[in-house]
Specification:
Blueprint: E1 27-38, H1 41-49, H2 57-70, H3 72-75, E2 84-94, E3 99-110, H4 115-133, E4 141-151, E5 158-159
Antiparallel strand pairs: 1-3, 1-4, 2-3, 4-5
Helix pairs in contact: 2-4
Length: 160
């Protein structure tokens, strides 16, 4: 297992609970997550040229990821609502591998981390690309969504 074998989202009776962070100090916290969406070369070419019928796919995906990060607590039942100080998405075209890579950076000054916000931003940005391109490529595949970095709080820094 990990260095902390206790699953904090369950009480002693095994019931789901929201972790009490009330006594924790607010600290600067940051998280970076990534993921990719694999697609046909022709689909990626449409995205690159801005020739997609639905508009600028990457611009829409970026906004969707930002909006999703801000609403993470509404989507993930036991997440605390956070005041984000930063959410930034990078969407990079990898023509060699026919994919788009999304990297999300989330930051806050709070009592709990922003890992879920960064991961949610990546997932929704990639799902938005899928949604906008599914008419021409239903075989797209979202892969490798994972946390790369987290810092702040009692547990300090972690890097993949």
């Amino acid at each position: 297992m990990t260095d902390n074998d206790n699953l904090t989202h369950f009480n002693a009776r095994g019931e789901a609970q929201m972790v009490d962070v009330g006594a924790k100090p607010a600290t600067e916290r940051k998280a970076i997550a990534e993921g990719c969406i694999q697609m046909e070369a022709g689909t990626l070419a449409k995205i690159r040229r801005g020739r997609h019928d639905k508009g600028d796919v990457l611009a829409v995906a970026r906004v969707a990821g930002i909006m999703a990060a801000k609403r993470t607590a509404e989507l993930v039942p036991l997440c605390h609502p956070l005041r984000l100080t930063r959410i930034a998405l990078e969407l990079d075209i990898d023509a060699k591998n026919n994919r788009v890579r999304c990297t999300a950076t989330a930051a806050t000054r709070e009592r709990t981390g922003v890992e879920m916000e960064a991961l949610t931003a990546v997932q929704i940005a990639l799902l938005t690309i899928y949604d906008m391109c599914k008419a021409v490529d239903r075989g797209m595949e979202i892969t490798g969504v994972r946390l790369l970095h987290k810092s702040g709080g009692k547990s300090g820094e972690w890097n993949r």
